């Protein structure tokens, strides 16, 4: 967790879909106000200038800013295609307006969206581009409203099915990463609904009852994320301070969660499941913390430097998950690296063993000021599964993966005789 | 053919023969490096080198004139230098300037001295020089904005030294870039290629006036991460670089004299899977390509400048 850059905004954000030059788009977030009580709401593009390591380049300046009609609950950047490689930026506005911009228009300072709809009758809380059919966009918001939009036929959005009585405020929408017509929504009633757009209905709902917590309130679902490769697995986060859990579900048995990740001290606000390595999940919460998990083993892998206010959104860069960004209500979006070998030695001081009385002493609690990271698990994208190298005398050494699960390797030394290649 | 199975407790990421083809070094996610003695069709494990705190991604043998020396690159952010003395392996140096995984290590051609090139996920490249007094001297600099996956040295300008005895000495001077009349030595023409998560291949050249390497050119062609780069050791007048990518293609970049780099796809259609590794034969005329489909294919350039298959490595 080397802090690379800082964006001085209390904003929600989205990463650009391209890797060659990572950009962030930010939108002034709903539910917050800055020090000077400014009523300006803006959509801004930021060039991370990651090659510039000078101290003065740490805090970024926007590449371009345009004014918008209202504050943002969510923002998404997707819909890229060969004819439109930059894709679209979609904003979920507090006013209930869904607006779509082209990044190239914004760069020219043109603030008018290419599409705009007032179909939602109240605030839109969440939006998501379909990862398979990139022209589709899902939105969810207040009054249980959920709509599916086709960028090419923007004027006629449709609902994924009959409106579910299980929803009141939709807080999150997420498309399945492997089956294009499946999506999930979650909200304040504590239910997570799985929708099948082909059959235009809700096919399943998930509900977790934590049992005797003495808390009669249902704990709202703040975030739903699907497994990157396994179409029946998803994770949900609970915003409930009394029970701030992250749940792993397998839809093949939706009665109870398969795994429960405990670690946040207050409600969890956001999740991101790494597309390139299903063994990595980020979470952020009302305890101001950003945690990294292995959702498959349930193990907490590390913690990033703590913010001074709620951390409401944390996302891996979609192309280069070695970097991630976290937004908090303390006026900052921090861009940092997933790993930092220098941080490994630091967390030694965190838990002093002592008399049992120390249990009541808050200082004996985990010292969250220091990032902890144990290098326990190398990200999958670094692990080269095969190799080849020439040696003296036409020898070639090759490494191949073997075994059913491709978990073992075989090394083969063979000899290349040039003449043989002439005879077909 | 020699086949070694289950040598490590986890995936093996690299295996390289030494200069004489007598020793094989392998490295693995089990955090160890193993040294095998190869004799004809038989192999014998000599030693297991422990010390890294994470998976070991790559190993590189130094030229034997420096001794029996191996470098290793690890997820723990360090490159280690190992030496064998009288059959005993020991860790003789640790290079710890990077803040993230070191993904590749490669020793320079011996003409340049004991120089080790490292590429890291922290976006930087570093070069450690082991001087005659044994003290390491390192420089590092940002190379690719979002992580460097591989780096490969250019061969010493042998073509230049041949030309210097003949009529073309001016060609060598022209590769200096600034056209100055300084005598080119191997020291001054040190170049290498790097490949990164920004989909670029970059060419770097040592600039003695700043005492570091400067970017000569950034080559655009890949549409996803560059996983490996290999600069051909060929002593022809043309320079060849092969780059392998997550986009399932291999590009051959060529440069004549100090002209522009030209790109050619190794084959017009894509490989079946991610291409992880490219390696040139010692003469530089055959390229081995290793893909995620577990296949190693061989390629050579025909007289028309097109690349054609030169075989497949069988199981």
Keywords:
heterodimer, A: 424 residues, mainly beta, 5-stranded antiparallel β-sheet, 1% helix, disordered C terminus, B: 315 residues, 4-stranded antiparallel β-sheet, 2 helices, 25 strands, 51% strand, WD40/YVTN_repeat-like_dom_sf (chain B), cytoplasmic vesicle (chain B), WD40_repeat_dom_sf (chain B), protein transport (chain B), structural molecule activity (chain B)
**How confident overall, as mean pLDDT of chain A?**
87
Oligomer: heterodimer
Number of helices in the DSSP assignment of chain A: 1
Approximate strand percentage of chain A = 35-45%
How do the helices and strands line up, and which of them pair or pack?
The complex is a heterodimer of chains A (about 425) and B (about 325).
Chain A: E1 3-7, E2 11-15, E3 23-28, E4 42-47, E5 64-67, E6 72-78, E7 88-93, E8 98-101, H1 103-107, E9 115-117, E10 124-129, E11 136-141, E12 146-150, E13 170-175, E14 182-187, E15 191-196, E16 201-207, E17 221-226, E18 233-238, E19 245-250, E20 259-262, E21 268-273, E22 281-285, E23 290-294, E24 299-304, E25 311-316, E26 323-328, E27 332-337, E28 372-373, E29 387-390, E30 395-402, E31 408-415
Antiparallel strand pairs in A: 1-27, 2-3, 3-4, 4-5, 6-7, 7-8, 8-9, 10-11, 11-12, 13-14, 14-15, 15-16, 17-18, 18-19, 19-20, 21-22, 22-23, 23-24, 24-28, 25-26, 26-27, 29-30, 30-31
Chain B: E1 2-5, E2 12-17, E3 23-28, E4 33-39, E5 42-49, E6 56-61, E7 68-74, E8 79-85, E9 88-95, E10 102-107, E11 114-120, E12 124-130, E13 136-142, E14 148-153, H1 158-165, H2 169-174, E15 191-196, E16 201-207, E17 212-219, E18 226-231, E19 238-245, E20 250-256, E21 262-265, E22 275-280, E23 287-291, E24 296-301, E25 307-312
Antiparallel strand pairs in B: 2-3, 3-4, 4-5, 6-7, 7-8, 8-9, 10-11, 11-12, 12-13, 14-15, 15-16, 16-17, 18-19, 19-20, 20-21, 22-23, 23-24, 24-25
Pfam families (chain B): WD40
GO molecular function (chain B): structural molecule activity
InterPro entries (chain B): Sec13/Seh1_fam (IPR037363), WD40/YVTN_repeat-like_dom_sf (IPR015943), WD40_repeat_dom_sf (IPR036322), WD40_rpt (IPR001680)
